Each structure stands twice: as C-alpha cells, then as structure tokens.
Amino acid sequence: MATLSTPKFSTSRNEIAGQSVAALAKEYGTPLYVYDINVVSQRIADLSQFDVVRYAQKACGNIAILDRMRRRGVVVDAVSCGEIHRALAAGYSAEGHEIVYTADIFDAAALDLVVEHNLHVNCGSPDMISQLGQRRPGAEVTLRINPGFGHGHSQKTNTGGEQSKHGIWHSQIDDCLRRADQFGVTVTGLHMHIGSGTDLEHLSEVCEAMERVAGEVGRTITTISAGGGLPVPYNESETYVDLDKYFQLWDATRNRLSESFGHPITLEIEPGRYLSAESGFLIAEVRSVKKVGGNLFVLLDAGFNDLARPVMYGAHHPISVCSSDGHAVDDRELVQAVVGGPLCESGDIFTQREGGYVDSRSLPACRVGDYVILENAGAYGFVMASNYNSKTRAAEVMIEDGQAKLIRKRETFADLIRGEVIPD
Fold first, then answer.
1. Please, are residues 248 and 171 in contact by the beta-carbon 8 Å criterion?
2. Quick one: which of 129, 217, 336, 386 is 20 to 30 A from 33 by CA?
3. Rounded Cα–Cα distance for residues 421 and 316 (Å)
4. What predicted TM-score, i.e. pTM, was given to this entire model?
5. Which residues of 107-116 are buried (b: 16+ CB within 10 A; e: fewer)?
6. Per residue in 128-182, pLDDT tens?
7. Any catalytic annotation for residue 344?
C-alpha cells in the first residue's frame, strides 16, 4: 500500500481533474456535483492487500459510480431495499456475495427482496436471525457486533457503545446462536464497525473483540470484516490512517483465527467515504455578498439541501473559489467570510462547527457570479440531499478519461411534484 500524505488545500481553484470549473458550471448549471473517477480508482488500489473490498454505497450511490467500482473488482454493501435495487441496476449479481444486506432491521420490502434473491445478510439485531430463518431456513448469515465501545469524529457518527443503535450487543452472542440453531441458520461471518475516524489504538481493541466473539461462535466462521470508517483528511490538521499498520493488525487477527479454526479466513474491509469522499466537488454560484454587523456573508445557490454534513454535525469541508470567467483568484485579497446557502433557515451555513456555531473562513474576496467549490464532498453529499424549500436536487457529472459525463440529470419541478395528488 502507498503511504499517503495529507493533501494541501488551496482556496483558489479553476479546474477539477483537468476540466474548467466555469465551463462545467455553464454547461450543466449549479449547484453541480462533480466526481473525479480517477481518485476512486486510486483509493481502491490503496486497499489491495485486503481479500475483499466491499463498498458501503450509502456514501455515494449513483449507479454510474457503482458500475465503475464493480469494474474494478469492488463488491457492495446495501443497507436498504433501495440500495439492493441500485446494486442490481449497476450490474452487480445476486450470486457470490457480490451484494450483502447490512442493517439493524428488515422492513417488509427488504426481507422480501433478500429472500427473492437469496442475498447474504449481515444481521445487526438478533430479531433479524429469527425473521430470516422463518423465511429461509438453512441460510448463512454474518453478525454485526457492537463490542461495547465506539469511536467517531462526531457522536452522530459513533456506531459502537451503549448509545448506538447499531449491531448486536457483545454479550448476546449465545442468544443469537440459539436463534440460529432453531432455524438451521449458520453464522459464517463477523463484522465489527465502531464508527468513522478510527485510529490504531481503537483498532487494536476492535481486533481483540473480534477474536473473542469469533471464539464464542466457533469454526463456522469463514469471513471477518474490518468494517469501515477509514478517515480522509478534510483539513490540513487531519491525516490518513497508516494503511500498512491497519492491514497488519487485521491480518494478524485473521491468521490467528485461521490457525485456531483450521481453515482459511477471508478478510474484508468495508470503506464508504474512503473510496468516494475526495473524488467529489460541489460547485455553487455566489449570488450575494453582504455585511451583517461584523460578519461578511457569501451566499450561494447551494444549501444544506445539497450538502447536509455541516449542519448535521459541524463537518468541515475545504472551500475554494473560482472567478466567473474561469480564472484562478490567487491575486485577490483574503477576507474572513461566512459561507451560507439560500434556504429559509439560519442553520444553512457551510462554515459552522458542531452545535451550530457559525465560523468564518479565510477566502479570496468573492463577487456575485463567482463559483465556490465545496471539496471532499463525494461522501454523504448528494445521497443526503433533499427537496427542502422545494429545491430541486443537483445534477451529477463524472470526470473520466479527460471527459465530463453526465450521470444524473438535474431535477425539474415536474420531478418535484410527481407523486403528489390533489384529491377531488
């Protein structure tokens, strides 16, 4: 694996993957999501030591992106009925564990689809074992374990510990095995994911917990999953995890279990944002620049309906500026600016900390018509977009082999009200 250094973020940008920001905005309109597929390919290659790379498509689920990952040997995780349909639409097969359903519940539609396609299930609640066993006796399942502790850059992204709804509590393994025995279900895999932004100290605890649980389940285990949460830097104070050390910890765990059980254990990893975050950019147009007391507000035509991470948990995104005519703005004066959107909500601010505290950012002085680029927006960006304030969702474009390719048309008002009915 390559050793990755923290990237340097610039506040001036006039191209994405060799394509002019201004030209993209003029051709496809704003707000506009743009993905550099070459970055996705690089991140897939980073994880080549793992036996299986399983993409958590909830991070970025456009079927064109899924298709390109499939072509590069990546399999997929689905957390809903809709995500199963997405994976199938992108060309994934229901055979050979190419699609695994991971969730804490079955809704009726998801259970029907899992049974119809004979999909492998990663169970996050004991009830799921019984519900699947009743419909498909003799199934093989994976258990997603909550080891009793968690980690994350925000409490809202922490997926372990008592306050997390995710996973099967570590002391309930016997109950799960009894449920499995009742329906002839076999537990063939274990999955453990404690949250985003994991570090090596926490990882060693996860590996130890994985070994303990595997010992309780026994030799039916053939696969373990390292889960996801691999960090990407959103500012220059953040770093990547040491991937070699990360793999070595999991590989040592896998090897000890293989020796104990007397058969090979497959090692999976389940990245989401690691594969897609840095590939994505949200281009927005500056529509107003105004003073409010001591603050300078730069207001865009994109809001938290387009990118919700800042308002949800104070997430930091690198921000850069491009002039309306497509030129770099390196020569402009740097000013402290609060960057916000058009929504009728005070919280519609891209430069805020967790808790809703408004921050400013040092940026080149903006003018109406300029373009602001919210970077590292390829994970939990468009997938969390909404129609709040009756806003239509953005178009999506993929840059591949030096070409811009439309992969989602911009929504129209007709799309917005398609399902609505005025009764007689």
1. no
2. 336
3. 40
4. 0.94
5. eeebbebbee
6. 999 999 999 999 999 999 988 755 444 444 445 676 788 999 899 999 999 999 9
7. yes
